Amino acid sequence: MATILPENQINQELNSSVHQFFRNQKLGTLLNQSNIRKEAGISPVMLVQFIFSLVLQKKNLYRTLESAREPEAPAKDAVYRLLNNATYNWRKFLLLLSQNVITQNLLPLVSENRERVLILDDSLYSRARSKSVEMLALVHDHTTGKFVRGFRMLTLGWSDGNTFVPLAFSLLSSEKQSNRFQEINPTIDKRTVGYKRRKEAVKKSTEALFDLLDDINPLQLCARTLLFDSWFAFPKVIKRVVSEYPLEVVCMLKRMHRVYYTYEGQKYTLTQLYQVVRKKRGRAKILASVVVSLGLDDNEKEIQARIVFVRDRNRSKNWLAI
């Protein structure tokens, strides 16, 4: 018969594992390199370890700080000072930690023949009940097609096909002022990292992705390919990625009326291109494959790409383009 451990013992074991992880990854050093340093009271390492442990224990931060059930919990003001400091570079901290985990713990276990890739994606961060959150906006939910209160979380991560590790993130508001309920806090120092992140929040996602890529060294992570979905699959974006970074791009293409690809000297939309290329007979999964031009880079060098038309598994009479 299985033995059920008491909650206190489970929490103690979790805290011990978290402490061991923090020590092995030298999180104190990483926090210091990210300008997250002790100003008064408890050290940032202890505060971050406390918050990290609450996530694993599935406890609410606000309720834990308000209640008296955690005698070792830090003061509420100390935690909020840590989270609200505009000079702390949390994106750099996440990147340094993720790089350590990947290079020290994951890459030695991955075969050199296995593909290592970067993945870019955005997801909805809903704040449906909020009213006064800074930069709160109406954002489009791709799943439902509706506009909801909240943000879009743009995330860049590393994967070997089995493991996904986030490297950098950007919390995006809306570029349209009419869609924003709140603006930037005017008291924020414009020289700080926090102000730069707020200015980044009103960029288009196709522009913000390059801010994330600028922080990453793909060669250090043994990644040669960037994957993203059709929301970012514009020729201009693909051309800039392959010309400015040591990366290739694999993505799903979206049928758009004003996006053209050059084939044999003529410009075609994706639908028009499918109509002119030669298709394979029968019920082949790959219907056609063609090399197109996306345009010229800054050095006047032509950027080429291969478009592969495949059969839609859900609707066999339709096609998809990669």
Beta-strand content: 15-25%
Spans of at least 5 consecutive residues with low confidence:
none
**Estimated radius of gyration:** 24 Å
Number of domains: 3
Summed over residues and divided by their number, the pLDDT gives a mean of: 89
Instruction: Describe the sheet with the most strands.
Output: 6 strands, mixed
Separation of the first and last Cα atoms: 53 Å
Question: Which helices and strands occur, and which strands form pairs?
Answer:
Elements: H1 7-24, H2 27-33, H3 44-56, H4 61-66, H5 76-84, H6 90-106, E1 117-126, E2 137-140, E3 147-159, E4 164-172, H7 193-200, H8 205-214, E5 225-228, H9 235-244, E6 248-251, E7 261-263, E8 266-268, H10 270-276, E9 286-296, E10 302-311, E11 319-321
Parallel strand pairs: 1-5, 5-6
Antiparallel strand pairs: 1-3, 2-3, 3-4, 7-8, 9-10, 10-11
Helix pairs in contact: 1-3, 2-6
Concise overview:
The protein has 322 residues and is of the alpha+beta class.
Structure, described:
- InterPro entries: IS701-like_DDE_dom (IPR038721), RNaseH-like_sf (IPR012337).
- This is Transposase IS701-like DDE domain-containing protein.
- Pfam families: DDE_5 (PF13546).
- Residues 57-264 form the Transposase IS701-like DDE domain.
- The chain has helices at 7-24, 27-33, 44-56, 61-66, 76-84, 90-106, 193-200, 205-214, 235-244, 270-276, and strands at 117-126, 137-140, 147-159, 164-172, 225-228, 248-251, 261-263, 266-268, 286-296, 302-311, 319-321.
- Helix 1 (7-24) packs across helix 3 and helix 2 crosses helix 6 (90-106).
- The strands form three sheets. Strands 1, 2, 3, 4, 5 and 6 form a six-stranded mixed beta sheet that branches.
- With 322 residues, the protein is an alpha+beta fold.
- The chain folds into three domains: 1-85, no CATH class; 110-228, no CATH class; 261-321, no CATH class.
- The chain has ten helices and eleven strands.
- Strand 5 (225-228), helix 9 (235-244) and strand 6 (248-251) form a beta-alpha-beta unit.
